[in-house]
Amino acid sequence: MPRYQLIVFDWDGTLMDSAATIVRAIQAAALDLGLPVPPDARARHVIGLGLQDALQHAVPELPPARYPEMVEAYRRHYLAQDHDLSLFAGVETLLDQLLEAGHCLAVATGKSRVGLDRALHHSGLRSRFQATRCADECHSKPHPQMLEELIDEFALRPENTLMIGDTSHDLLMASNAGVDALAVSYGAHPAEHLAAHAPLATLSTVEELAAWLKKHA
């Protein structure tokens, strides 16, 4: 039996090469609303949070009353580009190898349910995952609810579960749930920022991630 019966992946910046597109959509939405455009680093930092939390942190000048307007602008800009997004090279092979090795696979994401379903459909990955959780169904990361619900759904324990993500929000969520975590540095947050949260390892490519999982998971 695998050490980690359940492996949970973040989506944006971990499986899908979408961080730059998210940053551009946040910046364009701020510009549309006449608000200060956040620098790249601030916009990248909020990737992985639920959309409301992300926009409030990225654009702190956003008045609460204009939140729906900001969300609409962000989604318009993001959806105009999301058909061009692709998975990181090697992701499909990695997921198939994990399934063949007997792992259960799930997703815990800051995307909405509609957004994740759209991404799963376009990427062709829907059949690889037995369960998913989204930020409009649970508390936003780093709250542990998404992981706790997934662990309960599979009738497992935290020590049988591994979280893989590209942001500190993923690593903090794992810590809050008592779950081991792996970091990948090819997404939204830089390696030194991830390492500060003491993941089991920080991997710089999908190939390195696959090799680590084959050896340790």
* Shape label: globular
Strand order of the largest sheet: 3-2-1-4-5-6
Radius of gyration: 17 Å
**Helix segment tally:** 10
Main pleated sheet: 6 strands, parallel
Q: Structural class per helix/strand content?
A: alpha/beta
Low-confidence stretches: none
Mean pLDDT: 95
Helix-strand pattern: EHHHHHEHEHEHEHEH
Instruction: Please give the number of β-strands.
Output: 6
* First-residue to last-residue Cα separation: 10 Å
Percentage of residues assigned to helices: 40-55%
- Report strand %: 5-15%
Give your account of this protein's structure.
This protein is of the alpha/beta class and 217 residues long. The chain has ten helices and six strands. It has helices spanning 19-32, 40-45, 51-58, 67-79, 91-100, 113-123, 145-153, 168-177, 191-195, 206-216; strands at 6-9, 104-109, 131-134, 161-165, 180-184, 202-203. It has a six-stranded parallel sheet with strand order 3-2-1-4-5-6, sandwiched between helices. Strand 4, helix 8 and strand 5 form a beta-alpha-beta unit. Helix 1 packs across helix 4 (67-79).
Topology, pairings included?
Layout: E1 6-9, H1 19-32, H2 40-45, H3 51-58, H4 67-79, H5 91-100, E2 104-109, H6 113-123, E3 131-134, H7 145-153, E4 161-165, H8 168-177, E5 180-184, H9 191-195, E6 202-203, H10 206-216
Parallel strand pairs: 1-2, 1-4, 2-3, 4-5, 5-6
Helix pairs in contact: 1-4
Short overview:
The protein has 10 helices and 6 strands; from the N terminus they run βαααααβαβαβαβαβα.
